[in-house]
Amino acid sequence: MPIRSLILWAVLVAFTLTSSAQSRRRAQLTSSQTTGPVPVLPAPQARLLESMRFNSSLLNQAVKFSIYLPPDYYTSNRRYPVLYLLHGYGDDETGWIQFGEADRIADEGIKAGDFPPMIIVMPNAGATFYVNDYQNKVRYEDMFVQELIPHIDSMFRTRTQQEFRAIAGLSMGGFGALMLAMHHPDLFVACAALSAGVRTDEAFVSIPDERFNTVFAPVFSGPVKGEERLTLTWKRNSPITLARSAPEADLNKVRWYIDCGDDDALTVGNAMLHLALLERKIPHEYRARDGAHTWSYWRTGLPDALKFIGLSFHR
Fold first, then answer.
1. Per-residue pLDDT tens digits for 4-36
2. CA distances from 43 to 40, 68, 69, 262 (A)
3. Sheet holding 284-287, edge to edge
4. CA distances from 197 to 20, 115, 211, 237 (A)
5. Which end of the chain is more exposed for a tag (fewer CB within 10 A), N or C?
6. In which element (H, E) is residue 48 found?
7. Distance (Å, rounded) from C-alpha 190 to C-alpha 308?
């Protein structure tokens, strides 16, 4: 075979082999792969964690809490202010989510820029009114301060200074929020009480026996009547009594927000708390909107309460 023909033949073979290899490579890149592993995309991490548990040595039992994490929690490394949002009598750690839509309201408010991103903790308190009971057997207040807050600060990226921690609640939770903030003003920069379970001594004494013995007696006094209900436990925890007697310097460490409907049976007690703070010239916000002791009232009131709290986190 002439040399020229041999060279042409060699070139043609090389071209054919190269084209065949390229074709196979293109086929591999464009055809579906059935022999390799299927890539798995990680699911987004939950920002609403319901009914979490931690073991309390003071209560000798597990305490449940739900927690809301702001939209950018898993995409940032920042620390966030924290709000403790307390439920009412007969409810639990899921109430503010199930009926109050707190997670939706927080998402929408943060997106709109109405208040800054924050962590919201919703603990279960049973029917304790968030206090240490009169027998000092159920020490819920001590658990809250000594165990729950440190647990949250250790498990989540919170800002741990007083200026970045607030407390709020409805009904029994409003009572608890006021009491805890008045007892521990160095822990909370703001307190928002919605339809708080605040009563004057006269109103507390006049509660019908059946209701008193079911709701209040296990916490404050046992099954007693009349003036015997005004125990040291009641006086130590009554927000009206505390508003009249706590040091002014302590009360002024906290920004106060009180909101109670004009058709609510608790409106008198909330108004008396407002007057007690007025008499001592303690700055506070007071609202008496149209409404009763209902979830629709609290859902519509929560956005403004969160705005108030959000402003408290600013300097």
1. 554 445 544 444 444 444 445 444 433 444 445
2. 9, 18, 16, 46
3. 48-56, 61-68, 119-123, 82-86, 165-170, 190-194, 255-259, 284-287
4. 83, 27, 14, 12
5. C
6. strand 48-56
7. 8
